Amino acid sequence: MKKIFPGIIFVFFISLAFCSEDEKYSFISSLVKEENIGKSILYHTDRELSFTIPSIGYIKYASSFNERMKYVGKEGRFYIIESTLTEMKTENSIANIEIMDYYWEAMDGVPCYIYINSDGNVDHIETIKEEHEYLLEAFEGAHMGMFEKNYLYPLGFKAVDKKIGESWNEGIDSSKFYMTMDSPPSFAWIKELNILKKVKEKRDRKIAYVEESETLSINIILKIKYLDEERFIKGRANGAADGMWKWDVESGCFLSLRVVSKLQGDFEMDDETFFTKLSRTELHKLLE
């Protein structure tokens, strides 16, 4: 359900100097500042969701893409970001049968506008050209999927003036997201704990490492297409997610994020009821 925000090129030369434990740090994104209008950044994303249905077998949805993001400006109460996905790849399968996603291929290189509200969350998405309106649901699935981005407060509203070793709690009630691009909306309830583990000096820049732990309760609706039939999986899952943020303190943006979640629960599909476990991973890395 989270919360992603880009920044500058990550430099890998590491000095041995550590920052003062009394120094305070804030983690509020600088992307939508007025001085950044027209500027763009690029990062790479990998996602994978897997689970098993006893009567069908192993199911996997995996995708990767690059995202070019440009802050366009503010319209009324919304911040507008132009997003373009490129180099889009999928590796989806049901019971070892490959699933082709033609909407995914059609989105490659097509920009859309993402409207961000004052809380930093996605309010709605619009296609830029009328001819691409048929891709709107696909854009919503891509940009409002599990681990939804928060464009202003990626580490929560309380992520202000934190010392090394300090923690803070956040909560999200009934957050809407999409398990896959063509599934109906699911809803999640999240309790989150963040800890500022350390801050390192790297080439005269301060890089903060924030550990994130979440407990999740999710009402899931997932659509699959198997043997040319559309089927819906419904149920409630509980579990946990763990992530690690690398954050550039000076530029006010994240450099990378890895999140791993484990869920389990009881589900139904057609007249079948079953228990299953779901595994989800997501990786974001700044490219430029």
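^ that was protein a. below is b, sequence first then the tokens
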Amino acid sequence: MKTRAILAATAIAFSSFVPVLNAPAMAGQPTYDITGLTPDQICEDQLKPADPAEFDSYLVQITDPGIWTDVGEPYADETSPAGEPEGYGTPTYSNIFLTTGFFRNGGSPNVWGGATATATYPQTRQLFDFKQDQTRTVTFDCVVAKVTPAGTHFPPGLQSIGNTTVEEQTIDVGEDYLITDEPFVEEGETVYALICISPNNVTKGKPGTWTGKHGFNAANCPAASAAAGGTIPSGNAPVL
């Protein structure tokens, strides 16, 4: 048997196919495995005219492949992360330890200090390469003909009309973050912590007492305030 391909448009390269025979073939549906076959192979194997009858099998492409259609949403390729896990969202702080000197923030009379703390983020994010599954379809006919002295004969029962193949591919769509609801804990994160609230803030200008914050002893606030000296321009905005 000879097989010829007659394409309605520019020839295309078929790669990974999941063929689906939508229309019933006049010769009967094939019983062999058609997974991974090209339309040309489907025509040849499906029709199988008897030798040596000198039949010709023609693949007639009815529809062009068209554009690729996305299947589902893009998804992370979790087999090869593009970055390390990191915290995401607004953290809460614990285990705050003063590590550096005292300072003021702008013109505030309060006192801050450099510190380390344990930061717990409500979510975790990580950078991954994202993939997208796609498909496109081609519909085609399988035509069988025999050239005789009386002309070209198209034997009934050997024609197969409206066959459909589905071509699949997976493409890269770039990097993005995968965010989960798993808390992320960062030990020893550097923060600026409020350690002393001045008496003026508490009493609105009347004499009062210092208030210690974040575990700082209020009795040490006057000394911390003196050590902080004058006001420092904003720019070292405190975290806590």
